[in-house]
Amino acid sequence: MLIDSHCHLEYEGLVEDQNGVLERARAAGIRGFLNISTRRSEWERVVGTAARYPDVWASVGIHPHEADQHADLGEAALLEATRHPKVIGIGETGLDYYYDKSDREVQQALFRTHISVSRETGLPLIIHTRDAEDDTFRILEEEMGKGAFPALIHCFTASADFGRKVLDLGLSISISGIVTFKNAKDLQDVVETIPEDRILVETDSPFLAPVPHRGKRCEPAFTADTARFVADLRGISIESLGEATTRNFFDLFKKAKA
Ligand SMILES: [Zn+2]
Ligand SMILES: [Zn+2]
């Protein structure tokens, strides 16, 4: 039993055949899917898909790439969107200085908007961070000081030092198919050390297909390949990794249990 804690079911490559994609994943043992938003124009579809399937949930938020187009998104709009019963998380939000598709100050301001709404609703933040460890940690630490909020670093690829610091802040860490890549030795070392009650797994599909599917379009069924790899790394069975990551998902995304 596994949960794909981060997929984009509305993206090209998955949206054309959502039923088939979900059926193949269920056949591979995936029992739940968190369908992630990246821009406001997508929220209705992301939430609509979650409303159609009992095993799909939704997040609402703005990806850092899209920050410039949403600079005036207020807390109220985000807060309103979280009221839907299938919306269980906020994001993906965060900072991406690798692509720098949006102004860094705007990314940071919008990140803080998402944090406020997470603190107010108790819904976890789904954080995307790339080449932005220092600012991501500084903002998280400052904001935690104003009042705690639940959060997850998605598709973790950051340094061991960043991993330790966010774990100390109480965050959880989600591992994507990148961990299975040949050049991911540093990440594999970090994944071995994440506490058992803080680790989740995801695909970030349609991107980042794990070994042995590299080069193919990624889909939620491949959560099983990443999970098997992570279980081997940690020297435990796939069953116990499945149990732990599923329990962690529901402990973090408490609204999914209701
Ligand atoms: Zn992301
Ligand atoms: Zn994503």
Automatic annotation (TrEMBL):
Keywords: Hydrolase, Metal-binding. One of its GO terms (cellular component) is cytosol. The keyword Hydrolase applies. InterPro entries: DNase_TatD-rel_CS, Metal_Hydrolase, TatD-like, TatD/YcfH-like. It comes from Novosphingobium pentaromativorans. Belongs to the metallo-dependent hydrolases superfamily. TatD-type hydrolase family. CDD domains: TatD_DNAse. Pfam families: TatD_DNase. A divalent metal cation 1 binds at residues 6, 8, 92, 204. This is TatD family deoxyribonuclease.
